[in-house]
Structures are given as C-alpha cells and as structure tokens.
Specification:
It contains four helices and no strands. By secondary structure, the protein is mainly alpha-helical. The longest helix has 24 residues.
Length: 105
C-alpha cells in the first residue's frame, strides 16, 4: 500500500506542475487504502471519505478545508469520548412553542 507513496518534495512539485495528476494520485491512494480495510468497515470509510470530499469542494482555500475537516474530527472524537464516559448527549426538543410577536409599524 505505502510502497508507491511519493516523497514530500515530489508531491510539492506535482502540486505546482500538475495538480490534476496529484488529485488523481490522491484519489487512487485513498481508494486503495479503503479497499485494503476489512470489508465490514469499507462502507463506513467510503461514507466518511464522501463527507471529506464534500468539505473539500465547499471551501475555496486549503486552510478552510483543513479547518472544516479538523472540526469534523474533533466532533467525532467528542462523541466517542461521551460514549466512553457514558455521558448522554443533550436531547433535542421534539416540540417547541411558537410565540407570536406583535407587528411593529
């Protein structure tokens, strides 16, 4: 799996000279990694990669993408921590009272 990974300098040069080729290489590496996982995890991993790809498309800068994906990671870690500690997540209200406001003119 990791035998054909490029060195950092090679990745940098590829990003500068041929970003489309770099993106294709990245996709093939991600797909190869997911395919090498046990079959029972592959669907979840593909779903997670889909979410990551969506975040990458939403943001115009690499830094924005990094922040968004980091936020996803921290939210996931927080859920795991709550589950391990036996804490229950705050329940979301299923009903709400709509309070009318007077119309101001």
């Amino acid at each position: 799996m990791f035998d054909n990974w490029l060195e950092f300098d090679d990745l940098l040069k590829l990003a500068q000279d041929n970003p489309e080729h770099l993106e294709n290489w990245r996709k093939s590496q991600v797909d190869s990694l997911i395919s090498s996982a046990p079959e029972e995890f592959q669907r979840r991993l593909r779903g997670l990669q889909f979410q990551i790809d969506c975040e990458r498309q939403k943001h115009s800068s690499p830094m924005g993408t990094c922040v968004a994906i980091s936020r996803m990671m921290y939210e996931s870690m927080d859920k795991l921590n709550q589950a391990l500690l036996g804490e229950k997540a705050e329940p979301h209200p299923t009903q709400a009272e709509v309070v009318p406001f007077p119309i101001s003119v």
